[in-house]
Amino acid sequence: MSTLQVSIYRYNPETDDAPYMQEFQVDTQGRDLMVLNVIQMIKEQDSTLAYRRSCREGVCGSDGVNMNGKNGLTCVTPISEVTKGNKLVLRPLPGLPVVRDLVVDMSMFYKQYERIQPYLQNDAAEPAIERLQSPEDRDKLDGLYECILCACCSTSCPSFWWNPDKFVGPAGLLQAYRFLADSRDTATKERLSSLDDPFSVFRCRGIMNCVNVCPKGLNPTRAIGKIREMLLSNAT
Amino acid sequence: MSNMRSMSFDAIIIGGGGSGLRAGLELAKSGKKTAVLSKVFPTRSHTVSAQGGITCAIASADPNDDWRWHMYDTVKGSDYIGDQDAIEYMCQEGPKAVFELEHMGLPFSRFDNGRIYQRPFGGQSKDFGKGGQAARTCAAADRTGHALLHTLYQNNLKNNTVFLDEWYAVDLIRNASNDVVGVIAICIETGETVQINSKATVLATGGAGRIYSSTTNALINTGDGIGMALRAGFPVQDIEMWQFHPTGIYGAGCLVTEGCRGEGGYLINKDGERFMERYAPNAKDLASRDVVARAMVQELLEGRGCGENGDHVMLKLDHLGEETLMKRLPGIVDLSKTFAHVDPVKDPIPVVPTCHYMMGGIPTNVHGQALSVDEDGNDTIINGLYACGEVACVSVHGGNRLGGNSLLDLVVFGRAAGMFIESALNEGIEYMSPSQSDIDNAMARLNRWNDSKQGEGEEIPVLRKELQEVMQNNFGVFRKEEYMQDGVEKLANLRERIGKAYLPDKSNTFNTARVEALELDNLLEVAEATAIAALERRESRGAHSREDYPKRDDENWLKHSIYYPNNKTLGKRDVNFSPVSVETFEPKERTY
Amino acid sequence: MVTNITNLGRSGVSDWLIQRASAVILALYTIFMVAFFLFHPNLDYVAWSSLFDRTWMKIFTLLALLSIAAHAWIGLWIVSTDYIKKSCVRLGVQTAVILALFAFVIWGVQVLWGA
């Protein structure tokens, strides 16, 4: 049997009073398609289905969706990895307002990203060539700069669900540490003092949902731990 | 539509990829009232998928490296229809643009001395082709595009650039004297249609690889800028020149960077033979992309392909060792596990030439000003319209782009356009306001879709698929008159059907069906221009390879092709052979 | 930087540090008490009262009491900011918690040093 049962969260504010789940059947012809392929096949049946997608290879971060209860990118998740008993349940990323169907309003997520000043700050004059950086110092950025801002982590984090306006969230904090760890950045003190409150960093309770879902295999919890260490050594 | 809201800017940049963000940054710094409009959140743009690096003579791997050598390679790679003044500008300004990126925070990989890591890429040489393989591509592991795009976005945030994220540009607004004075755009989230007035409209909409069914390009690469320009009656240049990247993952189409071969990987056929040694004895697997792609297809045609159907070859990387692969090509290891179910540490990756890059585009000068050609063959400037990045044809890539030159193109010409627009705005720009009928013209196709009725036309996915198959089958790596003739006819038929196609979903909130409908129009414009230009260029040059005209014809075709949309004809435009500070590189036979 | 006035340490690091330090003290106190009960299977009032007559025990107990207060203040403050979104209700709960903890500490001091 190669018919996949797909249940998708539907909501169009213009026509629906409340969200509902809609059932679709997709003939996969026995292939282990990516979830995105399945969604595209459904879109051909029902063009009103709204979802985001762009690169279809896991680097742009458009298509974060909750698949059978776990956040991930639809384009790099084979159905065999998420389906249970031939059933696929697709919902928008949890914790953010739904715009339509699988599309969520990410402005709160982006706001937290912007809050950590995600750009290099260096008060020294720019040299005529590049700033030098040893391979060892550059290695410190590995596992940090690769973030694609898909929001899978932050929207799987209860602390972010409760306080999306105050807790920076795993994605933002991973980037905060990316600049704290960069040997070329000179704003360490200012960055730390802007994080030294009970919410921005310290709402992380270390449950590691973020690590569990990151489609790029990154570890925000570790980065948050490092920020905490820096805050502590800065304050004592 | 008198109740349509309008917004006004000094400059509106359409597209939030590398070139759009670089232009946006320049203009944001200048304090002009500008906005970057993008149909996706900027870091979702296709620049993010660039892997291998940004080619530039920053003299890191080789302290004696020279931008003139880079220029020589680029001219040769273009098969001599790259404009030498533009290539000179790009190669000479390049280091400045790359160092700027580094200062902005781009996390380049490093050599032990702390300088930016550079790797060898295809078509690179030292000393004007006489000094052997060069290593000139600056890299951040195999995620250079991602690192570059995010760095640019971050610096736009730093400089408070105004973003219109998830807005879709529908068509250019032209006034009575054919100046471009803005654009009609839709806010995708609310469905609101807005008239955007602007003194400078910059197209930075990227490529259109989605005209082919197999492409390395993102799903969003639908040639929106080319579509808008053609519908406005403006010509496009060298649009028949489509690069097929040698190493797209077989079946999935995802890109595997040329950096794999730069790091020492090579291609093998079903006998395990490193076949590029036969086709390019010197550069071997690092010959330029058109050469490698043709060699691969030749192998397949001669029955030496791999797999049951003999329809792909293999990229061998395992001999590089796990450590190098994880350090220099971690993204590739990931991608091939996901999409080819192959661990490159142990097994070779199945690959096939896949549509990758549009060398052609809107003709511009080095300042990003869009050009047209008048009846006497002289360049004329299209007031108010600018283009940069893949949508533009400056032309630095000519008939074939070298790997790593696209990212350089983005930042050099995004920056150049920004600087030029700033000074133009300072000098003062006044165009006539558009009349109601000018607005109506720009609204025409949106209204057509919104008024389309069920039962009167076909739906979008079917038409799109058919279009992509025509391009794939009739305008591939090797081209032939009869196939192309057939393709042109099929596209004419498709134009008729797409003109009557039906949009079932007319809702306002995040209506992606409407966006896909509008994109389909653009795909058609690009496809048809490509088809007609490819049919008319009766020679083989760069990526345009004809079985019926296998030789390069410098006598007749050492020229840019110019496609005029109004009467669907192809003209010619002179290639620039007058660089300012170096001697002209004269056309020679091209071997690697 | 998110500013707050009803949390104990006024900064995230100090709250974090206080919570961990107080947890350690409470753990030590718990281990001590469990051990005390194990070594005194037939515990009577005399033994119990003589334990608390010692000054170091009074100090240790007061420390544990203060640790409970601090730990609970921080913990309940976090819970209240997570789940109580209406600020007037939240402020009421926080005030009640702080007053109760204050009362417990004073009462504890009275028990320890009182008659």
UniProtKB/TrEMBL annotation, chain B:
Record flagged with keyword Transport: yes
Pfam family, one: Succ_DH_flav_C
Entry-linked InterPro entries: FAD-dep_OxRdtase_2_FAD-bd (IPR003953), FAD/NAD-bd_sf (IPR036188), FRD_SDH_FAD_BS (IPR003952), Fum_R/Succ_DH_flav-like_C_sf (IPR037099), Fum_Rdtase/Succ_DH_flav-like_C (IPR015939), SdhA/FrdA/AprA (IPR030664), Succ_DH/fumarate_Rdtase_cat_sf (IPR027477), Succ_DH_flav_su_fwd (IPR011281)
PROSITE patterns according to UniProt: FRD_SDH_FAD_BINDING
Primary enzyme class: oxidoreductase
This protein's pathway: Carbohydrate metabolism; tricarboxylic acid cycle; fumarate from succinate (bacterial route): step 1/1
Domain Fumarate reductase/succinate dehydrogenase flavoprotein-like C-terminal residue range list: 464-592
The organism's place on the tree of life at top rank: Bacteria
Keywords: Cell inner membrane, Cell membrane, Electron transport, FAD, Flavoprotein, Membrane, Oxidoreductase, Transport, Tricarboxylic acid cycle
Family according to the record: Belongs to the FAD-dependent oxidoreductase 2 family. FRD/SDH subfamily.
Protein name (database record): Succinate dehydrogenase flavoprotein subunit
